[in-house]
Design goal:
The chain is mainly α and 111 residues long. The protein has five helices and two strands, in the order H-H-E-E-H-H-H. A two-stranded antiparallel ribbon has the order 1-2.
Length: 111
């Protein structure tokens, strides 16, 4: 790999890269294994290696649900509005939290 990089740079014609952005877009991938943010996440759970994206997402979801539940925080029902008459998920979310303090502050600031 290093041998190929050296060969690439030795044959690189700098006259073709007078544009700074074009130059860095060409050589940046050669400096590291970073490939634009598409990193593959691999987890180990109960001595099992998990690398399938769906399974990784499920593990993270379970972890965060358990983390929140372990906080043992009671839901403040006074901050939730009833949503029985709604079917649209966005309308439900908007109605459900319409009197939440953060929403009320936002509404006041927008006036």
């Amino acid at each position: 790999m290093n041998k190929e990089r050296k060969k690439y740079f030795a044959n690189l014609n700098m006259q073709n890269y007078t544009d700074n952005k074009k130059f860095w877009n060409t050589v940046k991938p050669l400096f590291s294994n970073y490939n634009g943010g598409s990193w593959k996440i691999t987890l180990v759970k109960d001595n099992e290696i998990i690398s399938n994206d769906e399974e990784v997402a499920k593990v993270f979801n379970e972890y965060f649900i358990e983390s929140i539940n372990s906080l043992d925080i009671a839901i403040n029902k006074a901050l939730l509005s009833t949503t029985e008459d709604f079917t649209d998920p966005v309308a439900i979310a908007l109605k459900k939290f319409e009197i939440h303090p953060s929403i009320l502050i936002s509404k006041r600031k927008s006036l």
